[in-house]
Amino acid sequence: MGPWGGIGGQACRIMVEPVCLNSITIRSGKTLLAIAFSYSDKHGKPHHAGPWGANGGQLIGSSFHTILLGPSEHLIQISGTVDMNIEHSTDVITSITFTTNMSVYGPFGTREGLPFRSKLVSNGSIVGFFVRAMCLIDAIGIYVKPEREPMEKQGLITKTGPWGGYNGYLYDVDVSPRRLVSVVVRCSEIVLGRSEYLKEISGTVGPSPHPDIVMSLLFVTNIGSYGPFGGGGGTTFCSPELKNGSIIGFFAHAGQNVDAIGVYVDAIKEKESTHFGYEPKDNPMLAVNELGEYKHCTNPARRSGWRRSTPRKKSPLRSLARAEMAALANDAHRHADCVGAVARAYGSSWQA
């Protein structure tokens, strides 16, 4: 449906048919500057598109906005304004508003020019976008799915973002992540405890001698924060607040630097509290009994000698009977002019 806007720019569209829209990330200033979004296909596999639009110096004074749609929330309408951009001598999208079955997000940009509005989708949902873009978003259109897929058929894992520029090669995981174990940022490593999970990332995106890159990153868990890593400066961004979920992986556009970064989110699954009577950072001493269960132990001589008072069947984790928990990495934060490398470990590799 659409597009609405001008005739300039290059056509940008997705290659895999969308079934469910998961998140929208836009960058706006006086106009709509750039857009990215994530969606799931008919198999429940998450995909992302963009960022499409402006980059570099045109983004000075702009801001990021990310909309993470809830499990029962879906987009039913977009609206906005179109006006002539004097610098580029063409009509562009100056503002946009997103309407879901639960809320209204926006307007983003400046309400100047002629209004437009998509038809209200009453028996389905908007599941993706296509645009014409170069320096700005010249025009935008939507993909509509007439009937919304039942929630039980949708994947729990979604992709959000990315935030940053559009240069660099795409790096993504080849197996859907389930739990984030550690994060390596250039020379520093963050090892998450068994009861610790990542809730948020934030940072800055700024101009460089080349197009925009990620200048700094901060990682926030349910226990504490790590960073910021990098020199800072530029436009700030922040991943959406997660009330009952966690960030379980990353994808990025990167070359010599990290141009843009996005996250995999387990947004539906509620976090189960797993406490062992201490926080791993404060006391790494851990006892593991023959059933594979963990227990705080102050006497090293009894690290594997305790037993449950109530008998139970032996667990498949018996092989972990004498495992020891590695001491968590200290915050050996080394700052750089920009974020040079980001990695995550959960049991699979990256592929370009």
SSE blueprint:
Layout: E1 4-5, E2 10-12, E3 20-28, E4 32-40, E5 46-53, E6 63-68, E7 75-85, E8 90-100, E9 104-109, E10 114-117, E11 125-133, E12 137-145, E13 157-164, E14 169-173, E15 182-185, E16 188-191, E17 198-206, E18 213-221, E19 225-230, E20 235-238, E21 246-254, E22 258-266, E23 287-288, E24 294-295, E25 342-345, E26 350-351
Antiparallel strand pairs: 1-12, 2-11, 3-4, 3-6, 4-5, 7-8, 7-10, 8-9, 11-12, 13-22, 14-21, 14-26, 15-16, 15-25, 17-18, 17-20, 18-19, 21-22, 23-24
Order the strands across the largest sheet as they lie in space.
Answer: 13-22-21-14-26
Query: Order of SSEs, N→C?
Result: EEEEEEEEEEEEEEEEEEEEEEEEEE
β-sheet strand percentage? over 45%
Q: What sort of overall outline do the alpha carbons produce when their principal axes are compared? A: globular
Q: How far apart are the first and last residues' alpha carbons, in Å? A: 32 Å
Helix content: under 10%
Pfam families: Jacalin
Keywords: Lectin
Protein name: Jacalin-type lectin domain-containing protein
GO molecular function: carbohydrate binding
